[in-house]
Design goal:
With 116 residues, the protein is mainly β. The protein has no helices and 7 strands. Strands 1, 2, 3, 4, 5, 6 and 7 form a 7-stranded antiparallel sheet that branches.
């Protein structure tokens, strides 16, 4: 069974989860050929190891506190802060406290070649 994602013009609530954050799970909100939007939930102390994604990314902290590190720097994202990464930038995340992030990824759209 396919996981349901938001349809065009469907309103999605991304408000902080507050007390429900402890039991929340990461959820893909939108997924198309060109775009993926994820609510990423990380418990305090949880880490996502260094990795890269081919598309451009924004990471917005909806609530909590995370440290995002790249090859060049390390920064703290707290509630209301947003960060942009260009495609293929290696990065890692570590939750300082229970956190919820809105991650937007522009996917590399692969055109199929058509023959005349």
């Amino acid at each position: 069974m396919a996981i349901p994602h938001a349809k065009p013009a469907e309103v999605i609530d991304i408000q902080p989860l507050g007390p429900d954050l402890k039991n929340a799970q990461t959820t893909t909100l939108v997924k198309t050929d060109c775009l993926e939007v994820i609510r990423l939930v990380l418990a305090a102390g949880k880490e996502i190891k260094r990795h890269s994604v081919s598309g451009q990314i924004t990471v917005q902290c909806l609530e909590g506190n995370v440290v995002l590190s790249t090859d060049e720097s390390e920064c703290q994202l707290t509630t209301g802060k947003l960060l942009y990464l260009s495609g293929s930038d290696d990065h890692a995340l570590r939750a300082v406290e229970d956190s919820s992030l809105l991650v937007t990824i522009l996917l590399e759209h692969q055109q199929t070649e058509t023959k005349d």
